Amino acid sequence: MGNYWHGISNEQLHSAELALLRRGGLTHDQIRIQDVKIPVLAYQYRKGQDYEHLYDEAENFIHHIEIDIRDEDGTNQDQGKNLKKPTFILLHGYGAGGAIFYKMIKDLGKYFRLFVVDLYGMGSSGRPQFPLQEACQSVQEAEQFFIEALQYWIVQVGIQEKYYLAGHSFGGYIAAAYALQYPHDIEKVFLISPIGMPEKPDEYGSQHFVRNFDKMAPSLAARLIYQMWQRNYTPFHVLRWSGQLGTKRFLKSYMSTRLKKVSQQEEAQEISHYLHQIFLRPACGEYALNCILQVGAFARQPLIYRLPTFNEIENAPKVVFIYGDTDWTDPSHAMMLLQSEYQGLKNAELHIVEGSGHHLYADNPASLISKILIEAFDNRKAENYLKVKEIELNGILEGEPVDIDQIEEQLLLHQHQS
């Protein structure tokens, strides 16, 4: 998949992904990257039984990164303790891919059998040629595009035990929708700054949308985006029309406003190159957004009304909300669900990550991981992790070598003795 006007190719995307994984401290032997073939899906068959002959199936695949952290002797870190790592599946948000989690992937991989999955039709996953906008007639159909593909992927990679499912932003919405359909397969579902929680206010209109964009774009451009969304166009259509030069200008602004804490120029360039390769790939999964969301990221079927369904399901997974303390996705709706007077969730928890906006994985990855460890293990494991990260940071600042594995063993030994 190459395009000179857009400045993209499969080779460049793969190279950009590897660059971020290396920046996250991962080595070649700790990474397994795979494209898993997905069969013709239900929405494709609705186009006609001869779909296979009408369209190229080469794009029917899901891309994932599996992290396998091993000791120096080549064994899995948990094998010596006769423990099996729990499985953790992580989904990215709109306009991104799995490698965007590069700051937290290695650390999560020490505790979990970690799969970082690119949503079907997004990221580095396949972009089926069949135009989704012709088939997408409802929220259910749009959600099934992602859910059906993800379920096929889970079967194909051989995940048979219960697993943790996590998603950020739009990935959080899809994780919630998937968990509602397959609740007994999941141990806990982590909704990290999920979009689609609240209902759209009756008075919300174009003027409210434009006001939100005053600091980032002229009101005229915001009005244009509003009108385009209503006509089933997405922001990436504009970028594709503008080509690689227009996209580079946009990414320069994006990095300075959305990922402010990425201060190193080389790191920022690697992220920009990765997102550039994703943004300008052929439109596919993004068409589903117009079926799922209204302008302003309000869901057509808000999660605040759907998540309480878990109360009626025996052995349903616990729902864990995680937000940044300056997150534009408002945690107040999750707080409402935790309060019984709102007929909310019986088995749920809310965590706030300090010093973070919407992109928690970039703003404060250590704190985000600690919240996950609290829920998946216990407070002690999370506290140990944060202590190790503090020692590691101090060692880096002072230019001293730090043996992280040795520090972790000493902490565990000290706790057992006490």
From TrEMBL:
GO terms for cellular component: mitochondrion. Residues 86-365 form the AB hydrolase-1 domain. InterPro entries: AB_hydrolase_1, AB_hydrolase_fold. It holds the Pfam family Abhydrolase_1. GO terms for molecular function: carboxylic ester hydrolase activity; lysophosphatidic acid acyltransferase activity. One of its GO terms (biological process) is phosphatidic acid biosynthetic process. Belongs to the peptidase S33 family. ABHD4/ABHD5 subfamily. PANTHER family: PUMMELIG, ISOFORM A, RE40534P-RELATED. This is AB hydrolase-1 domain-containing protein.
